[in-house]
From TrEMBL:
InterPro entries: ADH-like_N, ADH_Zn_CS, CAD-like, GroES-like_sf. The keyword Metal-binding applies. Its cofactor is Zn(2+). SUPFAM superfamilies: GroES-like. PANTHER family: ALDEHYDE REDUCTASE. Keywords: Metal-binding, Oxidoreductase, Zinc. It comes from Artemisia annua. GO terms for molecular function: oxidoreductase activity, acting on the CH-OH group of donors, NAD or NADP as acceptor; zinc ion binding. This is Cinnamyl alcohol dehydrogenase.
Length: 140
């Protein structure tokens, strides 16, 4: 399902050039947070992905996995954040939530872990990163 339309800076190929790219965020789920991106770091992983040096990039790609933003909307079951809160997102935006790794706060070892960009959520939607005007992520 499609949610809000946003604009990001995307690589369209391995040239390293980023250009404006409009796309739809996934629809906000009951435990999701929608936030306006305020800041996003740039590191070498972004450059590797943009240039397809890891040989796994799907284009168009909106990179950025060191993200800070301000919450503008929360799902009905969100308890950790409210509108106006400042949030941060790293390199993981999803996991199964059911395995032993997830239940012991080690989501980075979950076999169904979802990276912030260049990955696919459980609902089939593609993840895009913080070189964007907004993002939707699970409250965890």
């Amino acid at each position: 399902m499609e949610g809000r339309k946003v604009t990001g800076w995307a690589a369209r190929d391995s040239s390293g050039v980023l250009s404006p790219y409009s796309y739809h965020l996934r629809k906000i789920g009951s435990e999701d947070v929608l936030f306006k991106v305020l800041y996003c770091g740039v590191d070498h992983t972004d450059l590797h992905q943009i240039r397809n040096e890891i040989h796994s990039t799907t284009y168009p790609l909106v990179p950025g996995h060191e993200v800070v933003g301000k919450v503008v909307e929360v799902g009905s079951e969100v308890k950790k954040f409210g509108v106006g809160d400042i949030v941060g997102v790293g390199c993981i935006v999803g996991s199964c939530g059911e395995c032993i790794c997830c239940k012991t706060n080690k989501e980075q070892y979950c076999t169904k872990m979802v990276f912030t960009y260049n990955a696919i959520y459980g609902d089939g939607s593609f993840t895009q990163g913080g070189f964007s005007s907004a993002m939707v992520v699970h409250q965890k």
